[in-house]
Structure formats: C-alpha cells, structure tokens
Amino acid sequence: MPAAPKSPGRRRWREAAVATAALLALTPAPAATADPAPGVPVQLLSITDLHGYFGEYTTTVPGSHAGEPAKTVGGGAYLASHLKRLRAQKNSVLFSAGDDFSGWPAETAWFWNEPTIEYMNMIGVEFSTVGNHEIDRKPAYLKHMMEGTCQGRPDRDLCFTDSTGTRFRGADFDYYSANVVNDVTGRPLVEPYHVRQVDDGRGGTLPVGFIHATTTHTPNEQLSYWPSELKFLPEAQTINRYAEELRGRGVQAIVAVVHEGFSQDSGAGYNDCTAPFGPLADMNKQISPAVDAIVGGHWHALVNCMLPDPASNPRPVVEAANHGRLINEITLELDPATGDVRRDRTKSVSHANTRDVAPDPEVQRMAKYWKDRLPARGNQQVATVTGDLTRTAGADEESTLGNVTADAFLWAANKDGQADLAVAMPGILLRDIPFAPNPGNPADAPGRVLFSELVFGTVYENGIGPAVVRGTVTGKKLHELIESQWQRGTDGAVTYRHMAVSGNVSYTYDPGAPIGQHVDIKKIRIDNKPVKADREYRIATLANNFFARNATPGFTALFDARNQDRSVYSGADALWKYMEARSPVRPPTLDRVRPAPGG
C-alpha cells in the first residue's frame, strides 16, 4: 500500500504552502495574562489508517525533526505497549480517525476485518470516525462491525470465533460521521457527534465534544464508490453546523476528527510543520474557531501542526501516519469554571511506535491466533472446475476466465437488482484458475479451487476489491463501449484490448475497419435480440469503470451511465459465489465475440 497521499491535487496544495507558511509567521503570540486557576488536563491520543496492521509489521518513519535519523517502527504489540505507557493519566481519550477496515494483511483480510475489531477492543479504542474504507461495503456491513449482527455480506461468512473462543460480538466502541447521509432522507448514516465527560478534579465533570466527518472524496475511491444511497456533505460546513449545536448545549471544548488528510514538505520530521498543504490544511481555514483541535487521516501522512484558525488563534491540526506507525498526543487544558479550552496551553506531539519497548504479550497471542488460522482458511474448498480457467497470452483474445468473470458479474448484479448484461474489463484478472493441483499444497486436488486461490488475488490483488455496479446506458453508448476496445496510441498504432462479455451477449467485428467502425450495432445481440441505438440497457461491471479515477484507460462510455447503484457483491465476491453456486464450473466456449466472415 503506497504511503503517498490518496487525495488528488497534491501539487496544487503544495503550491499553496508558501502562503500558509507566511500566515503562520504573522500569527500573533498570545498576550501574557495572570496565572489562572489550575486547569483540567485532557489527553487526546489518536491513531489513523490502521488498515488491520495489528500483527508483526516492521517499517520506518523519519526522525521527529528534519535531520534526525529514521526510526524503525511498527507492530500492533508494540503499539499497545506505547499506548499503555502514554495513557497513565486521567482524562485520557484514545480514538481512531478512520480507515481501520480494509486490512491488507491476510490475518485480518481473510476474516473480513473482524480481527482488527478484536485488536481495537483490546487496546481500548473509545471511538472511531468513519473512513472511506469503513464503507467499502453496504451500510449493513458497518452495522455488523459495530454490533456483531452477522449480516452485511452476500453470504453469512461472518462472525468468526475470536482468540478468546468467543463468537465475534462487534466493536466495544462506536463509529461516527456527521456528513455521510442517506441521499433520500438526509439522515446521517451514524451519529454525527458525541460528548465525552471528563473528570474536573473537583468531584464533577466537564464536557468535551467530538464531531466527525468523512472525506467527500469517498465516492471517487474505487473500493468505496457510492453513486447512490449515500451522500457526502461538505466537511467544514457540516462540522461548523454541529459545533454551533454543541455550543448551544453548553459544550465549550470541541474536537473535530476528520477522515481527510494533509502533508508537508518531504524531508521534514514527523513533529515538524514545514509548508503544510492539502485539503485538511485548507479546511482548517474554514472550520469555526469554536473547534479547538482537528485530527485527520486518509493521506497516510506524518505531520503535526499548530495552524491559525479563522480568528488567528493557533490550534493543532495533525495526522498520525498509518498502519500504527505513529501515535499523536494532544494535551488540552480546560478552564475549570467554563469548560473552555485554554488555547495558549494546548500542546501536540507525535510519538513513533518504536520497537524498543516490550511487546504486549496479549496482543502477540491474539495476532498469532489469527495467523495460525490462515492455512485452514486458505485451504477451504470454495468451488470445483472441470478444466483450466485461464486468461490469454494476448490482450486481443477471448478467454475462459474472462467469460466466467463476466457471467459472474451478471449473476451477482441480478441477485439484488437488475441488469441486462455484464462486462469484465481487460487487465482485471491477475492469475489463472488451474485444474491441476498445486504440487506444494497437499490440501489441493485436481479440480479443487481453494479460498486462497480464488477469493484473494484473482480479481483484485490485495483484498476483496471494487463493488459490482449497475448503470443504465443506451444502445448507442453500449456500441461506443464495444468500439472503445480498439484504441489508438500516441504513435498512431491501434491496439485491440478485448473486453469480456456475459454469455447472453454476442457480436462480430471487422478487424481491419477504421476506429469507431469495427462493429455494426445491428450485429450486437443481447439474449439473441439485436441491440437498438435508442433503447436503454442495464449494464454491470466493476465500480471503477463508472467514473474517471482508476478506470480502465480508454473505456469511458460508462462515465455518464444513469441510475447507477451498487450490488452487495464485490468483483471477487461475485466470482467466488457464482463459481460456488455453479460448481463444477466448465470452461465456457470462446464464441461470444468473433471476427466477421471474411474480415
């Protein structure tokens, strides 16, 4: 997983960094005042973008400041130990800024992220913001992770037995987001904010409000593409609305936890703030001065800033990297009489998850439990085949695996919706499904297809992959999509990149025709009926081919497809469950797309 920012426009934000730095230089220092009454300390400890890296994991971070040597970091057991040490004080709050899910390590990915929740329960996470990866699947899946409902996938392959011998029960904490709402009712998907009472040291409590938001770029992420059902409101505007509501309830100390990121110049240390740039830095200029701290994520960046709010008062704006590499610590001091934050007493520092402490033995035991279950999970038989399902040597050839995948997408699309046809774009299949057993695995046998062979690594390299999405196009657009298989390069040469079609589709083409004229629309047939240019058709394929980002290059005809909606199936789910339902799967004949006679 690259550590580069995931949001677009990095260059634009970097160019704006000089102006930000100048503004910082002009920020006035707070005026000296008489010593007030002793304040109430509140410690905010945050991690972000864990992505299931609770097991044995080693990487590096730069030094705390520019010029300092890099540090070796990583591993959930070390993170747990550091957190125990840091939390040895009252009014300590530990939380995540999102993207706990979509773990790439097999020990969590193969069990649908439930082990990640066990880990976060174990280390005492109190709440988390909904990141884009928390909604890679339908909302029912997030509910499953929060409540242990055993629902939220296209099958009931959920609620595994955890390392304590207990069936998955869900998170001991809640997920929040203010700006992810139902696109019909406008109601938030989860609660928008919450209030944490802290000990005031005098026998009472003081409130601290936490408002949460999710990046509005979520619909442009290929795994969490939401063309309908969910709507993403502007982050800063939504935060300001709820900040006003909290102030109306008498809450003076307010923290925004936003799954959106920013970064700084390369070469800076993780506790530097050198020319910060990015959407969260921009958002800071728009978020109400009523908000006393902003904790971010999403960009996998290492940055710890004190930036001026719209009233020119410095406040912390931070992002604590990813995969458990850093922990950010913000210390607030509350006025014991008003509950407001004494901004001039606010401090922020990030700590590296170094491996120079004793690893937490309970986390090590838990991580080993899940890792030890990988062989049994991977060797589960999920389907059988009567022959090889293969890709092809060339980009211009129909393939058995491509045809099965297109059939699977259509099957999945019609399980919880309706589609007339499906396509599988070139380049999405990463390996073949052979009939012969793997000679290095005694659990394999001729024709047996294992979980580790099919579910992970066939349609998407590191995990379950984009959803199957349906959309409505005209016959004219469908014809345009088929014609886009022939693409002219910058050198003028034309390349044919075969797109697999579901078994109810057929057409012939003229290999020697000019661009845009290879296929006669009258020769395209769906369910043995000719396609009509002005008729509408529901087409299904992977989500990333319905929008520009991460789409298969050259295939743009689906970008304007109407009435788009997500299936509950991902591409990998679709292939898996289709093959399971149709086993034994026979390699399909290669006769859906043919050169025209004499062509």
From TrEMBL:
InterPro entries for the chain: 5'-Nucleotdase_C, 5'-Nucleotdase_C_sf, 5_nucleotidase/apyrase, Calcineurin-like_PHP, Metallo-depent_PP-like, TAT_signal
PROSITE patterns referenced in this protein's UniProt entry, alphabetically: TAT
Domain Calcineurin-like phosphoesterase intervals: 45-301
Coiled coil ranges: none
Keywords: Hydrolase, Nucleotide-binding, Signal
Signal peptide as annotated in the record: 1-31
Keyword Nucleotide-binding: yes
Domain 5'-Nucleotidase C-terminal: 382-548
Transcription regulation found in the keyword field: no
Alphabetized Pfam families for the sequence: 5_nucleotid_C, Metallophos
PANTHER family hit by this protein: 5'-NUCLEOTIDASE (PTHR11575:SF24), 5'-NUCLEOTIDASE-RELATED (PTHR11575)
Family statement drawn from the similarity comment of this UniProt entry: Belongs to the 5'-nucleotidase family.
Protein name, as recorded: Bifunctional metallophosphatase/5'-nucleotidase
Taxonomic classification: Bacteria, Bacillati, Actinomycetota, Actinomycetes, Pseudonocardiales
